[in-house]
Protein 1
Amino acid sequence: MNNNAHLGDRKFIIGGFFVLVAIIYIFRLFYIQVIDESYKIKAQQNAIEVRVDYPQRGVVYDRNGKYLVKNEPSYDLMVTPRLVKGCDTLALCQTLEITKAEFLKRIKKACQAPNSPRKESIFEKQMTSQRYATLQEKMYLFKGFYVQVRSVRKYPKPIAAHLLGYVGEVNKEITEKNPYYLDGDYIGITGMERGYEEALRGIKGKRKILKDVHNKEVGSFMEGKWDTAAVAGKSLYSTLDMDLQEYGERLMKGKKGAIVAIEPSTGEILAIISAPSYDPNLFVGVKERSKNYPVLRNDSTLPLFNRALQAMYPPGSTFKLIDALIGQDEGVINRNSGRYCPGGYPPMGGKPKCHGRHSVDLVSAIAVSCNTYFSYLFFDITSQKKFNKYADGFSNWRKKVMSFGPGTHLGTDLPYDAPGNVPSVNHYDKVFGKGRWYGNTIVSLGIGQAELTLVPLQMANVVATIANKGYYYVPHCVKGIGAEKVIDKKYTEKHYVAVQKEEYYINVIDGMQKCFEPGGTAYASRIPGFTACGKTGTAENPHGKSHAVFMAFAPRDNPKIVIAGLIENAGFGGTWTAPIVSLMIEKYLTGKITRPELEKRMEAVDLIRGKNLLTTEVH
Amino acid sequence: MALRQNENSLFYGVDKITVLTYALLVFMGWLNIYAAVYNEEHQNIFDTSQKYGKQLIWIGTAALIAFSILLIDAGFYTVFAYWFYGIVLLLCLLVPYLGREIKGSKSWFGVGGFGIQPAEFMKFATGLALAKFLSNENLVIVSRYRLRFKDLIKNYKNTLIAVSFLVAPLLVIKVLQDETGLAIVFVSFIIVLYREGLSINFLLFGILAVVLFVLSLVVTKISTLIIVLASITLVSFLFIKRSMRNLIIAGSVFVLASGMVLATKKVYEKLEPHQKVRINVLLGIGEVNLKDEGYNVHQAKIAIGSGGWAGKGYLKGTQTKYNFVPEQDTDFIFCTVGEEWGFLGSAVVILLELFLILRVIFLAERQRSSFSRIYGYGVASALFFHVAVNIGMNIGLMPVIGIPLPFFSYGGTSLWSFTILLFIFIKLDANRLLILR
């Protein structure tokens, strides 16, 4: 055919069409590559995954550098369902001691949201090292599985469970509130693990890794330029004396109650016992914990309840020490103020009752714990003429009491401490009506009964204040964090209470010393070789027999240790708690026990199971 | 030119610009194949266990083929044009029965470890045959001149013969081998027919058909579409001469268009699921699962889109290197370009391909022989179709049809076939001054 001239023009149409298409394509490319940013983000999501490196949680030492808490490797078996091919299911089931149905159930779970067949998830949590060893030999049979090593807590001695607390997996509430935590992370749930979570957890490392389409790791992003290394958690140097703690727990076996020992010159907690307790190793590992937690939770003796911090007990007669101090400070009494006790408080018809008839001055009133004397004293403190209304006098007393700690959060470094209760004017206005109550209505407050409650930690703090003659340090259980061993300044600051005159304290301390002397309430528990000062308490309560309370410090000059202890529903403080406290003081001060029979006897007492080897009660 | 080239030299009259562009594209293609299948364990470029190693063999053999083509007298291609066509078509017919099955496709002849698809070679054979037929001096195909009805049959006879030259391989490859990608390429030869006189109306009708097809799938309410069509028809009366003839034409266009719209849904329903999905993906209609059907296109767009202005750098593409894009060394090789070389690199590739195609048109137009010119247009059309569809599907402007990017994609058969296609034309062009055909 001939090449007609008019057809020659068509080359421009054809060429033009080609150019047009090219231009459209280039515009399109410009749009998706330069203008639209979404593809870059999607590409990142495709190929870059942030992997977390878990740091070792910080360990905890006791005050002498012994391990309270260590770490132990734990082995999680991870699975990526998509990569499971030709896996020897039978062998795996046998090794893990699970059924085929269980195997399929777990694989299914690993495939469902929030897991995904492409993502690894935990198949078997925290295997023992023995199981890991057997598994490791056969690992080549289990394609798509691998073992991730993490560390779990290990407690060399089964003590201080309440103080140390435990770690557990974070829940949704935590991950939503705190972006640091991701699903599957661990966090301190109670005790020191919680109180010092930020120091202990360390800093998680982040690695950006490249994945291929099969989710296989193929390298690090930008040669790891943006990766951060995991920083191990800081070690905690605890104030706890492991030996004392262990000894105290041994003595408290079979009893319900709490003992708190503090070094008064620093506020450092030497021992903090809540009985009954449990072996903290029972809570290591999800499997262990889920097995043991319900058992302990349902135990009627409440072993999970941290009595030392949370149980609000009436202080009983031990509270008379505070009254004695406030009374002197208010000028209501002095060392020589005497009273005759007819065996009860006369203005209220002999109630509260007292044991026996006697004449007492301040010192001996403390030594024999005279209820009458302190009922009068409480009435006198709150009913002074200088106050227009009784309520004002009461408020003044209350304010001074609270300066010793009762009714407040002490600000200790342990979480979940209860404040105790010092009833307020409002409370009594509500109960009795405004202006319709006065000193004798509520006189049992003066002997540490009625609505008045303290937690054992506060009781110990009160003794520490007396031992220090007017101030305390906030009780704390950690004296150093990390290599620099720094702690918060608030634990090294003196807190002065409302009563400051040294003389007043000496008068009270004289009474406390007499307590351990013949005729004193704790004479049977005197500590050979030391001048100790103590005060017994027998706190009536609606749950049965009185709580046996005892507080003491030793030696009298330059006190090294104060202890407050309470045994629930045991009876008289001098009989039950004083021996245990005195044994602990001796153990702490000398490292040995000179009264093995007493030790043996106290250890054998089992109030929970009803065994009572103490045949006579010494008043 | 300082030195007059020896007329007997092998390279006498060979268009260097075309050859250089070709070489450049092949080289860039290889670089990107290397990147696409890059693997730290096999860095040796001659490692023939890897695709870039194999591609080097393909490139070497393609060079040999190019030389051979230049050696053979240009008359050979003219004389044996129909023979080529017949033989390759026969191979295409036989391959489903005698060939080897590769990846579920029965379009391959196996030669040792390598496979060859005869359908690839049908392109140049069709180009030659079409050129031979259309270059017949006494032949007229439908021109833009208006024809009376009685002339139609006589004139359309030649048009129909010309069209059957491309319909035959299309049907054979589509029906017998089920290779939509390889088959649909032959549609591109319509451009050749247009250049040689086919009325533009055919092309416009074609475009209209495609537009209507898309619209009737995108617009959910068919009635709305038909009302719009009717309005367009009525409005168009305001601008054209209101003669009986125009009325009939406009009327029948409307009826045809409406019929087309109504038929589309039916045709669409009859399509195979994977084809439906490809159309869905392209048009963004229906439910597309980005993890399955839509995966290729979605991932391709992510790879290209993440390249940004200047790309992530050679061998640094995460999407292509870690196999997020399937077929990234063959049909989706453009993703590697897009991701690692960015907008600049992608534009360069498009412009280079465009330049080559336009250069071929330029060369075709300077031929004294109709045969050479027509064949040249065949080359340009086939190349254009490949480039447009391949890049189009990479950037989400075309449905996914498995056809390679000329000179770029991995694969011996396609490289050979494009080399043969192009170099026959280069040879014809080199001879343009010597012989008048």
Note: Chain B touches chain A through 56 residues (CB under 8 Å).
Protein 2
Amino acid sequence: MTAAVEFDSVSRHFGPVRAVDGVNLSVAEGTFFAMLGPSGSGKTTCLRLISGFEKPTHGVIRIFGQDVSNTPPNRRNVNTVFQDYALFPHLNVRENVGYGLMVKGVGRATRNAKAEEMLALVKLDGFGERKPAQLSGGQRQRVALARALVNEPRVLLLDEPLGALDLKLREAMQDELKALQKRLGITFVFVTHDQSEALSMADRLAVFNHGKIAQIGTPSEIYARPRTRFVADFVGSSNVLPPELAQRLGGAQNWSSLRPEALRLTAADTTALTGTVTGLRYLGAGTRVTVAVSGAELGVLVPTGTPLPDQGAAVGIAFDTSDLHPMEEA
Amino acid sequence: MKSALLPERGAGDRMTAIFWRRPRVLLALLITPPLLWLGVVYIGSLAALLLQSFYSIDEFSGLVVHEFTLKTYIELLRPANFDIIRRTLLMSASVTLASAVLAFPIAYYAARYATGRWKAVFYLGVMLPLWSSYLVKVYAWKLILAKEGIITWVADGLGLGFLLDAALALPGVGGNSLSTSFLGTFIVFVYVWLPYMILPMQAALERVPKSMLEASADLGASSAQTFRTVILPLAMPGVVAGSIFTFSLTMGDYIIPQIIGTSARFIGLAVYQLQGTAGNLPLAAAFAVVPIIIMLIYLSLAKRAGAFDAL
Amino acid sequence: MRSENRAPKSLTLAAIGGLLFLHLPIMLIFLYAFTTEERTYQFPPPGLTLKWFAVAWNRADIWPPLYLSLMVAAISTMMALILGTLCAAAMARARFFGRNQLSLLIILPIALPGVITGMSLRSAFSLMDIPFSTLTIILGHATFCIVIVFNNAVARFRRLSGSITEASADLGANSFQTFRYILLPNLGSALLAGAMLAFALSFDEVIVTTFTAGQQSTLPIWMLQELVRPRQRPVTNVVAIVVFATTFIPILIAYYLTRGGSETAGGGK
């Protein structure tokens, strides 16, 4: 099957800055694909390369197998939901949604009907006459979504679309977006710096760092088996063990990751690994206990309801050696 | 299902593709007409001015000699001409100073106390005189300052006629009436350029965060101390920015001294008369170069004082 | 606690006094247009009459300068509108080599005293043997009007979310459609405001014009001649009111067009 989006060693340099540096990437049709990374890691530039607002310095981008090196944004059947929504302030909601059809020469009656249909899809029926300025942040986001989807794009690009919403609305929108993507079957490429958002929504995700892809895979793969220290650190807050410690605990002599929820606190004299409690952080569903052991600090996630040690107490730490995951590079 | 690429529709799409592939093409299309205009018409003219100032005039025929010489510039240093330059600079400096003093309460009030409707009143109240007809404003003062005009009438009515007479009797600045004295010229200059001082000053003052004033008070400064040590220094870039306008505009003006004042000449008036009735274009050009040089020095000093952030 | 938001009385008085100082003189012109006194600027006017409006209306020497001024202002505004908008569009698009130099070049005609712009043009015309004409007047006016339009347009470009032009392209619009359906509607009021101010500036301009007009008179030049050598003073007053109104009204319109934005018109005269 042809990939919806394919990057063939693509780079984008801005002067001396390598915003995107030799990225290879393939997004299968119909997937919800997330690009995750800290700001400046190149994920947004990758999105802009797909939409055509940036041109690659090197490499080739294909959309459904077609090289788009010579195709300007207006001729790519790809639409974007912008971070600031970029709604047209002088047009009302219906005109905003119908804009893409209007510039392609679709008649007024058809485009109004389609616009209303799309507004219904994003649960904004009856908002057609309003101006963007009269909408709440969440409503604007839906209009931006409807405006993109009305064009029946082959790929929908979303640039941190939930970043401006408050937490509750954001979680509701995450579920809705995911459901929408399943229903429409369109390929979604979603840029975010929020790892929990990426983990919960994506079918596959790419973790970006310094313009390169640090790891690509399904959320559970990436969470359970981070390939590098950066990924382990950025996705979830894993314990990163230096090679000597990992070896001492029965693993390979490699930098290794160990998820906090894989650790259990025990009495100090029952295990080989003991340390002192240096911090307790209550997280609601559990408490993250920081334990200083020789050579490192480990975070242990203790479920709520389990008794907690005191600050400064000596504790033991138990875990399955199989949870100790060796990583490729330091 | 639709294709991943949309078809090209017409010339508009083809041009768009060219602009997209070569962004410089669009930039060049946009920039060329204004660049040609400003480059040819304006810079060309400035070059012509400079060129003209290096020519001289033949004393017998009165014709311009198209040969490079510094003679015309040397002529600028003759006492009569040098006096004009000195007088102009003195006037520009005093107008600037007076504008700054008068502008401050307006700018400060507008920036710090005026809210809502009053903010608009102050804004329009400064903007309208700034933009309204220059000539009408000058003319209004001709009416006001005339011997038989409103100032004399008010002064006599209040029994203060002697003060006016005393002011007019001052050597150097006085005269027959206000409309034929240096004092009159000065007043009109201040009036006409005052809004140019208020606006940048207000902009600078508006940038002083309220919390900073509160911090100053919180740290135990009296209002006067806050004013002197916090507000004034922060307003300074605005004053400098405003002074660029008042100084430059006063230096180049030739209408006001022609209508209100003595027969003593200023640079602008000298330029005007030399190119007109006297027909001495080279000397007129040389005179016009003087404000350019002074402004260039002034601007580089102002830039160092951070005045451009207040514009 | 003492309220921090109440201005000291002396400051309020000084501020209001300052505003009055700026406005009262202009009002006086209106009074003088009705005076019965013809030869002096006597205050208070000995009597009031409406006859000067009729006299001014019938004076043949006023109409040609008025037409010329209107024509020059209209054409200069059109040219400034095109050139200023192009400049603003280029500046908003990209950082490019010479960008700062260009912005200096645009501001220069209005930053340097008018007498320099005037004298420069005069020198150029003289060196190239270009005779004075309506065209030479327009050449000068359009040059200093560009910056007015430019300032208004560039401020609006800045306020517009940069991504709306990208959004338009993303939705399938080509450059021309984006200009027609997105840029123009959003820039419209700023451009109109700029045009209003440019018109007001040009209609009223006298300093540069005296150097580029030759024998022709614009209305401000006519007025200047009357000021230097007065003939019928109240007629000049009537003309002054006309000039004032012709500049005042566009300025008010410009203000209302751009109100509420960070770019309220006129900051950069």
Note: DSSP finds 14 helices and two strands in chain B.
Protein 3
Amino acid sequence: MPETGSNLKEARRRTPTLPRDGFRFALVALLLAISLIVATGAVMWEVKQTMATNLFQALWADCLLVLVTLVPLGLLLTASHSLRQSRAAQLALQKDNLIAARVHSSEAHTWAWFTLGYAGALLLFLLLVLFFIANNVAVGRTFFQLPLIADSFGLILQAFWVNVVIFLFAGVFSLAWGLVVAIAKLLPGKPAQPIRFIATIYTDAFLSLPSIIVIYLIGFGLPLTGIPFFRNLPLEALAVVALTLTYGAYMAEVYRAGLESIHPSQWAASRSLGLSYGQTLRFVVVPQAVRRIIPPLLNNFIGMQKDTALVNVVGVIDAFNQARIIASNDFNLSAVTTVALLFILITIPQTRLVDRLVERDRARFRQG
Amino acid sequence: MSFLEVKNVVKRFGTNEVLRGLNLAVEEHQVVCLIGPSGCGKSTLLRCVNGLEEIQEGEIRLHGDRITGPGVDLNVLRRDVGIVFQSFNLFPHMSVLQNILLAPIQVLRMPEAEAKAKAMGLLRRIGLEHKAQAYPDQLSGGQQQRVAIVRALAMEPMLLLLDEITSALDPELVSEVLNLLRELAHEGMTMILATHEMGFAREVASKVCFMHQGVVHEEGPPEQIFFNPQHERTQQFLSSIIEAGRL
């Protein structure tokens, strides 16, 4: 057996591997490019027809259609490039120029994949356009009526302010509350056992409760108890309490993971300098932990922002509730689209901000 | 009565007995070197003296005052007993200066200006003034370890514990740390070192203790331990050190 093994090895050593033949792949790419050019033309024609039946005529729109129709011609370039390279690879192989053949073959494959990738994206775009104009632009009319969006924008923006206030308050509170709960959960020693127990029960309970139920119970329930303090609170404040309780539990779990990720040697170093448990947490452990968990904390924060739309179940007039009122008046969902756009608009910058914070921190820790 | 007395100390991690009735006496201004194979309990002993580990039996006394057992204020003890670790353990989110200032300001309640002047003086002494605003990961290992030593010195401890502080360093960085220790020794700082630097131990130690299986197996002046060891286990340990070219 070892002999055949070494023979195999020898044989493998003597015959170099030939480059993959990219010709067929290139051909597929070319065919795909051609069919997509045709398809794009057809879809754009369809759009033009729809525009005509709706008596919509504009030079810019026509120009746009022509432009979009021309874009897929670029695929012809990449596909034919791939075809040429695969041809060159075959020729080089005939002349026994193995290295040149490999280079050409790899080029051919790269360009064929390039064509495929862009063709796939274009296909998705065409499907979207078809969906949009289907049934005489039914989708477009239902969700994207520009005049309705413009009319409702002011009212909805005003109502959106309620969402902003709720999530700012609930955000700050749940960030602070979560840290308290996490620290309570990690307190050492026997005397702290009841506190650990309560903190654990709290997080267990609120991690499993859907936030809509918490909002409903607190927003409806507490005023019903008739206790003057709760009866006089505005609904928005109760919504903040409900969201803080729910998201405080999520935040606590993130904080706990962060605190536990700090190496015990940092505790030892700090305690050995005479710092107390609390001082060690405050100056050494929490600052390092928070730095590590900014992304998940912000994910929770964004999640909570989205959940502010749930407060409509207790009758707070937030952006979504306002939009629903407008939508049922107009019998059209464009106002709700406005809310969706607003949520997207405020979330994206936050995500980017966190990316940058994380990157900056990483860069500093990477130096030296 | 000695400055530091360790009497019959037993330390267990679960069922694993690391210190088995260990005795040790250290006088003021002495430099005591702990040598011995890995796992013999050197680090654990130092951590017990600093109160980072609880002991199960025996007692430790500093200046005659018992520093183990219930009711001891460890935060106060640790103002007097500093420790430096093998892996430096600087706080990575703080600059060098902040690392040094943290304990004097928060624990000793020293005014900030005074603490800062003192910290800068210490940094000047180790030639790292220009790194005061740098972060630990911008320093070499040797620089980090010297900052860690200075961080402990800023508390003006009566006793300094050094736990294999050169073991994690590249060979060419070891000398800068040892030079600092040499200076401290000449100034009369009381120190206990767990170390594998036998040459250094020979040079500065007032007393060398060979530890084995959780007890001090043999102790004496460096000449005696290194050149005329009495116990068989000590001889074995030293001959393997010599074989490795470390003595």
Note: Chain A has a mean pLDDT of 88.
